[in-house]
Amino acid sequence: MKIEKLVKKDLKLFSRDTKTLTLIIIAPVIILVILGNVFGQTTSAKSLAGLKLGLCNLDEEYKEISIPLFTIEDLGKECQEKAEDLVNEGKIRASLFIPKNFTKNIREGYGSEIILYVDNSKTQTAVMASESIKALVQKLNEDIGTDFIRGAWDKLSDLNKKLKFVVKEAEYTKNQTIDIQEKVANLQNNLKNISTEGIEKQVIEINKSLGELSNTQINITPEINNITKSLKEIHNTNCQGNISQDQCLTINSTINKLDIINENIADKENKINLVLKKIDSTQLNATAVKINETKTTINKELKNINETFFNYTNNLIEIVDELNATTQLLDTYTSRDPKNIVRAVTLNEEKVFGERTYFEFLAPGIILVLLLFTIILVSSSNIVNERKTGTLARTLLSPTSIPTFLLSKIIFFTIICFIEIIVMIIVTRLFGVKIPINLQIILIFLVSSINFIVIGLILGSLSNSENAALLSSLVIALPMFFLSNLFFPFEIMPKFMKSVGSNLPLTLSINNIDKIITYSTSIELSEVLKLIIIFIVLSILTHLIIKRKPTAD
């Protein structure tokens, strides 16, 4: 009953305090409306769109420039210093300088450079501008590489056609060479069949026959001369009366005929001698030797020619095989898309949560952050006010213990927390953020609320004025906000700060509500246990501090 009365008293006072009511109800609504309009209309990637980019383009050929997320502002001509000055003066976040002959230098193979002036005092926009321009440069390099390879592919295709023609001609030449080899082999066989032994034998027979003919002629002439001489002696001896006139005439006629025969033989012998002089067996022998030598030389040359053709054919076969392999490789390479060579790996980004707005991810954490600030401020100011007015001291002098008082305050502010949470959930619904209402969500909101309440109570117990309570609340709440892993991820923090931040009540609450709403998993019982332990420890400290100094004097 005592707790119920204390809670009702606080609720009545709260309803009369319009300033506190405004702080708890109106302030979170205004902040959520602002954040919802800023982040609730686009996805997280587009939430940074509209960044102004100054463009100083001195290249007459490179005209079409379109960069996502940027609003391009043309800076005119002769603007390099202007591009840098605008960034230095904070008038634009980034500017891009494209030099003269940019496209020409790239086309001629000299390469070129563009300059990005970026305001790195604004880390988020600086990173976005830098990464976007890097993506632009990468795309330019890919396009240039693709065009270069495509041109090389065209030239290689023409070369491949010529190589295929060469292969065809080489195949024909190879076949012709093989035919020539066969003909040379046949010629060698034919030369082997040519023999000079018959010629040599014929020369020997001719020499022998000519010798016998010469000897026969030489022997016949003396015999005829002897016969003629004998007949003349008989004629001279016997024709004086020993023999008849007819016989003498016959002898005389025979002598005349023998003389004629002898003359004919002499004439024939002269002719035969002339023929023998013309027939030179030495020359025939020399001719036979020459034929043999020529045959040997021709065989040797044919053998060399055959070996040459054999080696040539083998080399030609190897060349044809290599050319065939080369043409096949060229066919394979030139059939590939140059884009797949320049950009062999492509990134296919699959957003596991679809096209949800940035505000949908922020909203649950923002609710807890707003709850932290408002409840710490209100609860700490409430305790300071009760201590300054003596209400706390009078309450404790009555039959009300400090635990009862603290429990009533926790219940009162828990009711305020859930009123504020309901209002904020309704506002987020207007921006399409659906926060489910279930036991796990209620548990996290409850444990978070009582932790924030106790932090406010302990700060109010330590402070002697509302201003001190306000400053103390900011000193505690702001570090918890920065270390909550909501806007500033742990991955960019040192290990020590990460370990501190991961054990703070706000961080533990945001992690669990993210697991339930964003990742559709269950809560981490270990983290809930940490929140309960923190609540118990802070409650004990609050009890001790109030017991030691219940007033603000």
How would you describe this structure to a colleague?
With 553 residues, the protein is mainly alpha-helical. It has three domains: 2-42 and 356-548, no CATH class; 48-145, abc type-2 transporter like domain (abc type-2 transporter like fold), CATH 3.40.1710; 197-301. 74% of the residues lie in helices and 4% in strands. It has 17 helices and four strands. The protein has a four-stranded mixed sheet with strand order 2-1-3-4, with helices on both faces. The protein is rod-shaped. The two termini are 31 Å apart. The mean pLDDT is 79.
Supply database-style keywords.
four-stranded mixed sheet; 74% helix; abc type-2 transporter like fold; 4% strand; mainly alpha; 553 residues
Secondary structure elements and their pairing?
Elements: H1 2-16, H2 18-39, E1 51-57, E2 70-74, H3 80-88, E3 94-98, H4 102-107, E4 115-118, H5 123-193, H6 197-238, H7 245-278, H8 281-334, H9 338-342, H10 358-389, H11 391-397, H12 402-430, H13 439-462, H14 466-482, H15 495-501, H16 505-517, H17 525-548
Parallel strand pairs: 1-2, 1-3
Antiparallel strand pairs: 3-4
